[in-house]
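Appendix B, Record 12. Input sequence as logged:
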Amino acid sequence: MEDNSTTLGEKKKFYHKHKSLLKDKDFLESLGLSILFLIVGLVSTFFAIIYATDSASRPVTDIILSNIPVFNLDWAFVYGPVIFWVIIAVYLLVFDPKKIPFSLKAISLFLVIRSISISLTHIAPFPTHAQIDISGFFGVFTNGSDLFFSSHTGMPFLMALILWDNKIMKYFSVIASIFFGAVVLMTHLHYSIDVFAAFFITYSIYVLGRKWFKKDVLIGKVV
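Logged structural output:
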């Protein structure tokens, strides 16, 4: 009986927590604005990739890629991030919905800054790289010309910083960031500088996000 009553109490607490957020005007306003920001980030990424592809020059040598063979890891490159983001989305929706507005705005800031970055650098992909056929929605945002800096590496690291107060999600995101960084190097789909710089740029984006979106930091209790 005690176990059943405890479980019922936890369910009620879970229900009321989510119900209260749906009535929280500040949360709903921040959520709506964060979705708008995300759309801006995705649109800027779309056009930046088109521009970078049309303006691509020649490839350059790389101390890592020039010394390792190409590995066929297309499954990890394509489906790995999908699995990662499904897990992150489920966690935020179910266990920590207050962090959703800040997470979306931080991701949007990441996308905009990366769009500017890939628009400034027009290096062609490394000559030897895995041939990955990506069609549909994902193909629009990943075609091999969006090199600097690596979103495969940076995005999971950004989530690690946002979810730093949860040990499991923090380590999961850090491991995912390192794993995807290794994948894009082994497939020669990113230069080593794209991966190396991603950690430093992403941390700077996180710091800027905390400074510019203070209201969302307070709502989500981001550490």
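The CA atoms of residues 51 and 119 lie 7 Å apart.
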